[in-house]
Design a protein that fits this description.
By secondary structure, this protein is an alpha+beta fold. It has 19 helices and 8 strands.
């Protein structure tokens, strides 16, 4: 396998869309995630190659991890369909059919490399066109945004002009008073924090009803709710200013566990999803740099022009909404088509690479791949957070599959996988068992691989290989 084909499994639509989304939203961990997304596959490309072959438990963990990662891509496809004004199921169904067709087509592997190059080229071309039209390329948009005193709704924002809908259940926190207009019948839950204890009110609003919110209030809306905000008001949930967007207060010592957890998860997952190429070349690292840089450019341009694009919770919103808002309806439609084509090609190359990894670690049977696609498509029908699903899949890959690379035999691989599965499951269940815990405990629940991976590696190396067993157990 070439280095270019090896990185295709890493450049998932869900990963690149999540990077652009989290940068637009000004998340404190966005810089760490971007660094991890670039460095982790480079480490995997430099890791020594291991012959294929794995015990059943490792193959099962591989299938589970690949299925969850595939579900994250299908969730993004569902979000794309809703952003285009339709239901979730057509987008998920088309993505699932494409995943099946790519796996069954014998000539797909020959076209994977040029398709990946084309996809990343289109993904970089679109934000460049948007930035030039706005007169602010990414390298100037960053300092311009960082100097903004407040991040507010523009008069041309979709949330102001015609309203927009939320991709999933969301809680908004308001730092200033604002009037929110309901554009769909539903129940809107408001928590007022101006008294102790806080007052909880549920309002059943009809289309056109207005809800007045005060500073400190929290508004919870269900998935699919449509609302309209006031122009010039602060975007709820967004950083208070450009300075806070560029240098979030949460980016301090308290986020070290979450940052380390993200890096460990990404590196551990890359070691198993990005196989060591038989032929080294600069093409793989260059494509990784192009993909991550393209996602960063999208996020910076979106945050500079319309920081409310991340409000609805749909990961591809900055990619799909920004062109029309900056370029106008006609020119924006052309850029939108290019972006959709880039996402489709990324999905095709990523699913083909995941199919090859599944064949190497578990089974080459087409029936197994088809079963994973069907299950992943079922998950994609629900309005789940694609980023959380993706981190779960990457964590499973890192925790239950990676230690087998270090094991000297089947016994070590089984011990490492067993310890990791138990540790991973226990940490992932922490929010349900002990809600409202400290930040470091929340970080362990979000990235269980931070603890599970070292424990599994120790268990895998603790058992020596039998005298007659000298082959590694996984590639």
């Amino acid at each position: 396998m070439t280095a270019l084909a090896a990185v295709a499994a890493w450049l998932q639509p869900a990963l690149l869309a999540a990077l652009a989304f989290r940068i637009t939203a000004g998340e404190a961990d966005a810089s760490w995630l971007a660094l991890g997304a670039l460095v982790a596959p480079l480490i995997a490309l430099l890791a020594p190659a291991r012959p294929p072959g794995a015990p059943p438990v490792v193959g099962a963990a591989a299938a589970l991890a690949i299925g969850i990662v595939l579900a994250a891509d299908f969730l993004v496809a569902g979000d794309v369909a809703t952003l285009l004004g339709g239901a979730r199921w057509p987008g998920v169904a088309l993505a699932a059919l494409a995943a099946l067709a790519v796996a069954a087509w014998p000539g797909a592997r020959r076209l994977a490399a040029p398709a990946l190059v084309t996809a990343l080229g289109l993904l970089a071309l679109a934000p460049l066109a948007v930035a030039l039209a706005a007169g602010a390329p990414p390298w100037t948009a960053w300092p311009r945004l960082a100097l903004r005193p407040t991040l507010t709704f523009s008069e041309r924002s979709r949330w102001v002009v015609g309203g927009d809908r939320f991709a999933r259940r969301t809680t908004l926190r308001f730092t200033e008073g604002q009037r929110v207009t309901a554009l769909a019948d539903g129940v809107y839950r408001v928590v007022e924090h101006d008294a102790a204890p806080p007052t909880v009110r549920e309002w059943r609003l009809a289309t056109g009803d207005v809800l007045t919110l005060r500073p400190g209030d929290e508004l919870s809306v269900e998935a699919g709710a449509r609302v309209r905000f006031e122009a010039g008001r602060r975007v709820p949930g967004a950083p208070a200013s450009g300075v806070e967007w560029a240098d979030a207060p949460a980016r301090g010592p308290d986020m070290v566990p979450a940052a380390l957890g993200a890096l460990v998860t990404l590196v551990g997952a890359a070691l198993v999803l990005v196989p060591s190429p038989r032929r080294s070349a600069a093409a793989g690292p260059l494509l990784l740099l192009a993909g991550v840089s393209g996602a960063l450019a999208w996020g910076v341009c979106a945050a500079a022009a319309f920081p409310d694009l991340a409000l609805g919770g749909a990961l591809p919103a900055p990619l799909l909404r920004l062109p029309a808002l900056v370029l106008g309806a006609r020119a924006g439609a052309g850029v939108l088509v290019l972006t959709l084509g880039a996402l489709a090609l990324l999905l095709a190359t990523a699913t083909l690479a995941l199919r090859e990894r599944l064949a190497a670690a578990a089974s080459p049977a087409l029936e197994l791949w088809a079963a994973l696609v069907v299950v992943a498509a079922g998950v994609g029908m629900w309005p789940l957070d694609a980023w959380r699903v993706l981190t779960l899949g990457l964590g499973v890959a890192a925790a239950a599959w990676a230690p087998a690379r270090l094991a000297d035999g089947v016994s070590g691989a089984l011990a490492g996988a067993g310890v990791l599965v138990l540790t991973f499951a226990a940490l992932a269940a922490l929010p349900a068992v002990a809600p409202g815990g400290p930040l470091w405990l929340e970080a362990l629940a979000r990235y269980p691989a931070l603890v599970a991976l070292p424990l599994g590696c120790l268990a895998a190396r603790a058992l020596p290989a039998p005298a007659d067993a000298g082959e590694p157990v996984v590639g």
